[in-house]
Amino acid sequence: MVAQHSGKGLSRRSFIAAAGLGTAGILGAGALSACAPTSESSAGGNTWDQETDVVVVGSGAAGVAAAVTALESGAEVIMLEKEEMIGGATSATVQYCAPGSSLGIAQNFPDVEDSADLMFEHAMNVSGNTADPALVRIWCDNASDAIDWMVEHGCEFKEKLKLSEGRQGQGKYIAKTAGELTTKLVPIVQEQGKLLSKCAFEELVVDDSGRVVGLVYRDGDDAKRIKARKAVILCTGPWSNDETMVPRHMNPLPETPKAAGETFASMGMPYGPFTGEAVRAAQRIGANVRHMEYLMSEPCYSTAELMEQGVAVAGITRTVNQVLVSSEGARFTDEGAARGAVANDVLALPDNVFYPILDGHIVPDQVNPAPEVLDKWIEGGFVVKGDTVEEMAANAEQTFGIPQATLVETIKRYNAGCAAGADEFGKDPHFLSPIDTPPFYAGPVETCIMLYTHGGLDADENARVKDVDGNVIPGLYAAGMCTGGQFGQDTVSGDWQISSVVFGRIAGRNAVAETA
Ligand SMILES: Cc1cc2nc3c(=O)[nH]c(=O)nc-3n(C[C@H](O)[C@H](O)[C@H](O)COP(=O)(O)OP(=O)(O)OC[C@H]3O[C@@H](n4cnc5c(N)ncnc54)[C@H](O)[C@@H]3O)c2cc1C
To answer: Which residues form the FAD-dependent oxidoreductase 2 FAD-binding domain (predicted)?
Structure first.
């Protein structure tokens, strides 16, 4: 387990405690004014612009789960969202991992079962045992219940599970629409609580005992203060767009923050909402961060040309039964492995470009682009097609320069492995379906590195944020991608969402139970 402390020697919290000073005293002396936590008796005096039981910061999966849970437990809730668009990255999501639900959707293979224990085992394996088992246990054990909770709140799922990368034939739930969760739950927050958009959280307010009692946010030119009678819950998502934190914590990848921002932008996301200020604000009152070094890149779904046109090729690489080949026409990875592992193999290619090969029985798959979408990409010269593997490969050679003979041979070998049930890259036999049904497609994907930061605030199994000494910071909770530890270095797509819902609900429930 990796814990990265925010400061050296005595933490600010321990320093404050050791010195017997309240934060107001320190601020009054001006000692920490450059990066000071806001105390109850400073920055606007004791006046509050608003008062509520629970303030939730961020309107994505974790935020809506926390807010709706708190509201339904009888609390008054204010949600802050810094963007005009509500829903964060969650508004683009569809995948949720869970071992079952009351929907009773069957696994895709008769020999495959799923359980919270299997999900836990696979999540730990995919993370290379870097994830915190105590946290993984929580989101795996509560995943099915989270799906049921979403269904109770009006969320709809497709009737077939999608094969889950990094697992052994198990499937994951696919919501009927992108952003299903926020579409269905944000109105509940608006009706029963209060949602303030274009209001960016800036600082936590602590009292003299170190308890979080409110926050400061920016509303246009004004700094405003909300008193939280019970708790503040930070649900601000990843910090992938932060131009200082990303280079500091990850292995250098040229242009990475820009590429991540462009990726979000190409998918209709506002550029740069994930800038980590909530994590830094919590650090300023002594919060610990962990797993900051784990940033997951993944093979993305767009070429630079398409991204320039604002077109996201979402879906083309998302199935484990495709074959991925290099510019040389050879396979280079286990396509059924988790995304971080595939991305690492892509990054090892000299040009970082790879080509998913699809056939007629993959294309109608529930999450692949529809044939008419593929036809548009063919017209645009981004994808080639053929009625035989040979024809597709000839077109791929002409358009992309992939040697036809090598590509044809690669597909032959892959199909032979499928027939034998043994793949040379160790692909799970459940994912081995031959590329043998016309029409056949190939198209380039450039690794534009969609970043998922897996590090963040050190929140415990109860979603309580801990300080650098391991003590709980009273009145402060965090859930979702702004927290660290629950995924380690790699995870399965769908784990992010389910974990955010699980810990959001836990945070909402526990925040309401707080007595100041
Ligand atoms: C295109 C795309 C598709 C994805 N698909 C999936 C998927 O299918 N399944 C899956 O598991 N994961 C998916 N992910 C990962 C996804 O990022 C996480 O599942 C999601 O971020 C978790 O929810 P969250 O609540 O932690 O963060 P988010 O949903 O990102 O919400 C955080 C919110 O906090 C707001 N915020 C940030 N700072 C502040 C501030 N200072 N003040 C106020 N508000 C602030 C942000 O604007 C944002 O609205 C996808 C990501 C992308 C980009």
So the answer is: 53-487
Neighbours of 58 (CB within 10 A): 33
Ligand 1 site, residue 480, Cβ cutoff 6 A: yes
Q: Whose CA is nearest to atom 51 of ligand 1?
A: 89
The rounded distance, in Å, linking the Cα atoms of 340 and 336 is: 11
Segments in 326-457 forming alpha helices (H): 339-347, 371-379, 389-400, 404-420
* Amino acid, res. 147: I
Looking at 7-11, 90-94, 227-231, which range is the least confident one?
7-11
Higher pLDDT: 94 or 349? It is 94
Q: Quote the ligand 1 centre to 415 CA distance (angstroms).
A: 38
Task: Say if residues 455 and 240 touch (Cβ distance below 8 Å).
Answer: no
d(CA 62, CA 235): 6
CATH fold of the domain at 38-90+180-295+454-512: FAD/NAD(P)-binding domain (3.50.50)
Look at ligand 1, atom 50, and give the residue with the nearest C-alpha: 93
352 burial class (0-12, 13-18, 19+ CB within 10 angstroms)?
A: middle
Ligand 1 pocket residue status of 484, Cβ below 6 Å: no
Does residue 278's CB lie within 6 angstroms of at least one atom of ligand 1?
A: yes
Between residues 399 and 302, the one the model is more confident about = 399
Q: Under CATH, which number does the domain 304-446 receive?
A: 3.90.700.10
Question: pLDDT tier at 360 (50, 70, 90 boundaries)?
Answer: confident
Tell which residue, 365, 239, 230, 377, has the closest CA to residue 306: 377
pLDDT at 500: 98
> Which of 80, 82, 157, 495 most suits a substitution to test ligand 1, by most atoms within 8 Å of the C-beta?
82
Ligand 1, atom 33: nearest CA belongs to which residue? 58
Residue 274 is predicted with a pLDDT of 79
111: its two tokens: 């020999």
Q: Is the CB of 88 under 6 A from ligand 1?
A: yes
Q: For CATH 3.90.700.10, list the domain ranges present in the chain.
A: 304-446
**SS3 call for 226:** strand
| CA-based R_g, the chain, Å | 24
Q: Does 449 have pLDDT greater than 90?
A: no
Tell me if 200 CB under 6 Å of ligand 1: yes
Read off the pLDDT of residues 86-133 as tens digits, 9 standing for 90 and up. 998 898 889 999 999 999 999 999 999 999 999 999 999 999 999 999
| Closest to 268 in 3D by CA, of 190, 178, 146 | 178
DSSP state string for 67-132? HHHHHHTT--EEEEESSSSSSGGGGG--EE--S--TT-PPPSSTT----HHHHHHHHHHHTTT-S-
Pairwise pLDDT comparison (295 vs 118), residue with the higher score = 118
How high is the ipTM of this complex?
0.99
Confidence at 301, pLDDT banded by 50, 70, 90: low
